[in-house]
Amino acid sequence: MATLIWYSGYEGDVRKRGMIFIKALIGNPLIIGSLAGAIYARLVGGFPEFIDNTLQLMSMVTLPLALLSIGGALSFRGVRKYLPLSLLGACLKLAIFPSLGFLFYYLFQIDGVAFKTGMIFLCLPASTTIYVLSSQLNSDTELASASIVVSTLLSFGSLSVALLL
To answer: Which pTM was predicted?
Structure first.
């Protein structure tokens, strides 16, 4: 999120951008929702069945709606324009981070299901939420959509390696 704010349309020095970051952090709906859910789960436990079913149905459409939004902002010109940055981000996300994760899993002797699950999560492509956050924080949505597309295409390789391990 800090990177999205730093390269957004906001002008100002480091202190002003820091304040914008703190405001965005406090007002981030993903963080607010996660905290509210954790507090609710701790205090109350679970939802009534009809609310739980409704929320499950709503959650099924969130990924397709996010992908539609990304597809609306995606253009071949934008992918070509941001290909070097997208490739750099995808290499970090899909090669460097899984390699470091593998090293740490090996050093701390983590194996079995925990190892497999961790490696699969490390090899997943960029999340669609970066597009939503880019849009909310007045950052570059074209770069976000290009990064999602490039990392999704390249994740087939990293996920294949993770599954072979």
So the answer is: 0.73
